[in-house]
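Appendix B, record 7
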Amino acid sequence: MNTHVASGGPLRIGLVGAGPWARMTHAPALASHPDVVLSGVWGRRPEAAEALASAHGTQAFTGDEGFDALLAGSDALAFAVPPDVQAPLAARAAAAGRHLLLDKPVATTVEGAREVAEAAERAGVASVVFCTMRFDAGTAAWIADRAAEGGWFTARAMWIGALFAPGADNEFGASPWRREKGGLWDVGPHALSVLVPVLGEVTEVTAVPGPADAAHLLLRHASGASSTVTLALDAPEGATGTELEVRGEAGVSSLPADAVDARDAFRIAVDALAEAARTGVAHPCDVRFGLRLTEVLARAEEQLARVRA
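Structure tokens (predicted):
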């Protein structure tokens, strides 16, 4: 077990990534956390890493040697890079004995996600996947309450954005991986991270494409309940919105529509990682959960590709 965690000292967390998500959420949350030392920022672009590190009073790193240096000075790494950049770096970090605070999805291939999960298991390191809804106080409480009630018959979820609309003022719209992979991989993990703890693991997947990048999923869950999910990033601005409702013996219940505070949620995820590292008890939203999400989304992607072909 990591000596800093075992002794109750501050957790030294290095940040991997220097883009908008790292700048808006990860870096400020880590730098302001009372039990964390932000041990450095690694970025693929040296100028971005230097700017973000300087803003938070820490060191900047880049390249392979820089990544090794960040590992040497950290107890854990937090990731804010594209999923298929994240996966090999996270496996490398786990092999070095560092705990993992991963972004969703862990990877966009089952092989990539499995590599991280197996590396974490071999090394005995703790892991948490930052599915925002699982760590925001309001939505996490709703998920726990609905899971405890049980008796759900069906659910309906929609995560629809307009990231690529002309004139859209959203830095994430410039992300090449989001443009390539679409809503299935970017917002699909959000929907699944809510549905799975409430309805059970996904046992069957049917997927059909809609307009642009829209994907419609029909899921069967281990509880016997079904759910429908609509995901998109390239919708018209008038079509955007997020909704999720469950229906069953307890009636109808909707996921709270209040705005999620990503920084507060990330601080809670940091606490969850520290607790898992200290106790050795896996968090429900760990890398193995992240692997299962990737498996579901990969099956859906295969079906969508066949229809679109």
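Remarks on this record: The longest helix spans residues 287-308. The mean pLDDT is 95.
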